[in-house]
Automatic annotation (TrEMBL):
Domain HTH araC/xylS-type stretches: 149-250
InterPro entries linked to this entry: Homeodomain-like_sf, HTH_AraC, HTH_AraC-typ_CS, RmlC_Cupin_sf
Record-linked Pfam families: HTH_18
Keyword Transcription (UniProt): yes
GO molecular function: DNA-binding transcription factor activity; sequence-specific DNA binding
SUPFAM superfamilies the UniProt entry points to: Homeodomain-like, RmlC-like cupins
Species in which this protein is naturally found: Acinetobacter kookii
Name of this chain's protein: AraC-type DNA-binding protein
Keyword annotations of the record: DNA-binding, Transcription, Transcription regulation
Amino acid sequence: MLKQIQNYIEVDDFFYQKDEVIAPHSSLWGDFNFSLNGILEYEIEGQIYLSPPNYGLWLPPQTAHTSIALDEQITHYVCIRVHPCLCRHFAPDTKTLSIRPFLRHLVHEILEQKQQGITTLHYQHLLLVLMDQLKTATAYDHYLPQTNHVLLKPLLQQLADPQLFHRSLQQLLSGLPMSERHLLRLSQQELQLSLSEWRNRAKILYAIAQVRQGKTVKKLAYELGYQHSSSFIEFFKRYTEQTPAQLRDI
């Protein structure tokens, strides 16, 4: 398949303005979509999925979906289409996949060569490496899962509220009519994430959008409850594998 891999994997990129809606559609091929910068919100089979930088969405063939660009700046988005005969290597349902820096660099190289009309053996090899990277990427059900649980739903709203980011998780849990231990068990059952991890992901979504809008690291660090900018930068890099300055310069 080495000489024909370009017939089985297609890589394209798109640019979306804020609030631009991509109309509902589906494909006979599988879709792996991820953002080079910016955030897209997807509606897939009645559920909401977020696609921030460094996390992409795998959509099996014939999965109807629509999306909207959330970022204030232009969102640069990549769509990798996978031929149905290769989709057996991936999950039969929608998954959120972790994007490693190597995969991002690989996609940049593929797009650059495609733009130049290069379809050499090297280009085909890049597509094979891309396929291997997608097959081995860490998968999750959701990046920021939601629930209708009577206690967890309002709690998640508080945890995702930027005006409350400066308050600790323990402070937010202290006024609830059940023990912290019970809430943590409930979180794992309903979300498959700890409350602290869920809140960190909510914070990073907010931080990405604010960095792209030009907010200073010092001000963001304060808003997210960090006493020192260096601690916030370390947190940001742990989740995005980039510093705020690197993300801003993309």
